[in-house]
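ASSEMBLY PREDICTION REQUEST
Request ID: AP-0331
Submitted by: J.K., bench scientist
Number of chains: two
Total residues: 761
Priority: normal
Notes: Please return the full assembly, not individual chains.
Input sequences:
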Amino acid sequence: MDSSPVPPFAPVPASGAPGPSTAGQLDHLESEAIYILREAAAEFSNPVLLFSGGKDSTVLLRLAEKAFRPGKFPFPLMHVDTGQNFPEVIEFRDRIAQLLGERLIVRTVQDSIDRGRVRVRHAHQSRNAMQTVTLLDAIKEFGFDACIGGARRDEEKARAKERIFSFRNSFGEWDPRHQRPELWSLYNGRLDKGEHMRVFPLSNWTEIDIWRYIERERLALPSLYYAHERPVAVRGNILLPVSEFVPLNDDDAVETRVVRFRTVGDISCTLPVESSAATVEAIVAETLNAALSERGATRLDDQTSDASMEERKRVGYF
Amino acid sequence: MAELATKATDAEIGVLRFSTAGSVDDGKSSLIGRMLYDSNSVTSDRIEALERAARRKGETDLDLSLLMDGLTIEREQGITIDVAYSYFATPQRKFIIADTPGHEQYTRNMVTGASTADAAVILIDARRGMTTQTRRHLYLSHLLGVAHLVIAVNKMDLVAFGQKAYAAIARSVEEFARAIGAERIYLVPISAKFGDNVVHGSARMPWYEGKPLLALLETLPPAILTHYTPFRFPVQLVRRVPAPNGEQFRQYLGRIESGRVRPGDEIAILPSARVTRVRAISHFDGPLEHAEAGKSIAIEVEGDIDIGRGELLSAPLQPPRVDKKLTATICWFADETFTPAARYLVKCGTRTVAARIAEIVNRLDIATLASEPAPETLKSNDIAQVRIALAQPLAFDAYKDNRATGAFILIDADTNATVAAGMIARPDDEPAAPDAAGFDPGL
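STATUS: Completed
Returned structure:
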C-alpha cells in the first residue's frame, strides 16, 4: 500500500450536531465498516468498490477515506450504468471520483445489449435486471475477486440474510441455504479461481443511520435526494418520474409535485415520494417518522412478488 | 491505571446486539414481529402486506411472524432456516437482532448469531417448559460468552396467565443455569401473540413485578467493559506514508479490540516478541491523544521495526499467550465429518496459520452435558474439546478473558469452507492429560 496524500472531497455546509447517543451509534457502525473495508483490502488481491452516485455508496466512499487516507484506495471504483440513470447522478458520480482522485470504471448495459449478451424483448423492458450480466462480465474482464457494495440488511428480506463476506460461485450465484457461517469479526475470504466475494460494510446500517451519517460528515449528494419540483405521473398511490424511459398509461395524470427520491437507481424503476424535506436535517426528521419502508415506496422492481429480490440475488444481482 | 477508568462509551450503550433462539413452535418470529410492531418500527406498507395475507387466509389477526421469515424456502416450510438480521431503535437504544433457527440441524446458525450478541433471548413454550432445545440454547449462549441470558416464557395466554406454571419453569431454568455456571439470567412471562409483557406490561399477570421484555433489553448494561482489559490491537494492514523529508514511515491499521492506548505507551509485538513504544495514533480526522476499545485507528511506533498483518500489538505487562499449540472447545459446522488427514487453517484475529487437529479430547452430549471421551470423529453440530497444533506461533488469550483474541474459525484449506468455530480454553481449564478428565460444562 504505497501512497501519497489525497485530500478528502469537499463537504457541503451543514448545521446542527446529532445528540450524544446517536453519535455513539454512528461511531460504532463507522468503526465496524472501516474494519470490514480493511479486511477486504487485506484478504483480496483485486477488489473493486461499486459506486453508483447514490447515498449508500457515497457513504461507503467516506468510510473508504477513513479507512485508507492519506493513502490511495486499494481498489478502483466501478459503476454498472443501465444507460437510464438520472443525468445529474452520473455527473455527480464522475465529479466525486475526480475529486477523490480515484479511478472510476464504467461498464454499460447498452454495451452488453450491443454485444448480444443481453437480449431486449420489448422497448420499455426495465434494464435493472439486465445489470447482472454486465456486472458479472465486468468482474470477469478485470478479474475482480471481491465487489464491495453499499447494500444494507434492513433494505429487504433477502438482504437480511446476507453475510458480510458473501460468497459467489464461478457463475456469480448466491446460495442462501449454504452460506459460510460467519462468527465474531472473523471473515473467511478464501476463494478458488473464478469465484468472488461480495463485501457489505454497511450491513448493519439502517436508512436513518445513513442520513445521520450524511448529516454528521456533511456529505454532498445529488440534488434529487432533496425536495424539488418535478413533473410526475400519478398512478394510484405511486408517483412516476416523467421521462422517456418510463412508459405512461392513457389515464395517468401528469402533474408537478414537490418530491424527493429516497433511493436512486435506474429511472424506469425508481419512484419519488412527496416531501418538502429540502435539507439533510429535514430528511433525518422525516425518516424518523417514515410511514413507508424505503424500497416499498420507491422501487417498482421489488413489488413484482414477495420473493423478487431473492430471485434476482440468487443469479448474481447486487 | 485509575485515571483511565471511564464509564462505558456511548457506542457501547447505544447499540445492543441480541440473538433470539427457541424451538420451532415457540413463537420466536412472532415475538420479534410483536416487538417491531408495538414499538412502531413497522412501516405502513409492510402492515398492509400483513393485512392482505390475513385476508387471503380469511383471518382477522395479523400474523406478525411474517415480518421475520424471509426466504422463499422458509415461507414454504414455515420455519426459519438461516440467521436473519433485523434492526429497530427506541429513544434509548439501537437494537441489532440476529434471529436464529430453532431446528437442531441449524445449531451452527444459532452459534453464529450468539457469537456477536450481548444478550440472548431464549423462548420457552409455557405449556411444555424446558426442552432439550432450551438446554442446548442456554448452554450454547453461555459457551459463546453471551453476557445476559433472557428467558421469555411465551404463550402464557395458553396457561391462563398462571403464576404456578411460570414459577415451575423458572425453577428448572435456574437449576440448569447453576449447573452450567451461567450468572446473569432474567425471566419474563409473555404472550407474543397478544403482546403481554413484550413492549407493554400485562394487566393479566399482575403477579409479575419485573419489566416488560423491551424495557429490560433497553436497560441491560453493556456486556463487558473492554476498556478495563489489557490492550490488544491485531494489525490488519500496513500503510507506508511519505514523510516531508522524502522518506517513508509506516502506519499500522486496525481496531482496538480491548484496552486503551496513547502515545508513549510501551507495547509488545507478538508473536515476533519485540517491544517498542507508540509514537503516534491517528484517525482520518487527525491525531488522537488516546483511543479505546472499539475504535479503528492507525498506530505509528518508535524505531525501524517491521510489523506485518497478523501481529498482535499488546500491553507488555499483560501479554497474550504465544504458542504453537492450543486447547479449545469447537463447534463443528461442516456437513462433512472431521478427517485427520484434512488440511486446516486457523484464523484468529487477523492472523491465519496452518493447523491440524491433533486430538479430540472429548465430545459433549449437549442434552445431558455428559462427555464422551476420545470420539473417533466429529459430525455437524458436535461440540467438542480438541487440541490443535499450529504450523506457526500464534498470540492469543482465553475466550473467557477476551472474546476477540480468544476466538477462531477453522477453515478447510481444500474446500475453503468454514468448518468450525473455536473458543480457546484457559490454561487451568485444559484437560490435564490426554484421555483424562471429563468435559467441563462451566467452560
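REVIEWER COMMENTS: Residues 1-20, 302-306 of chain A have pLDDT under 50 and may be disordered.
SIGN-OFF: pending second reviewer
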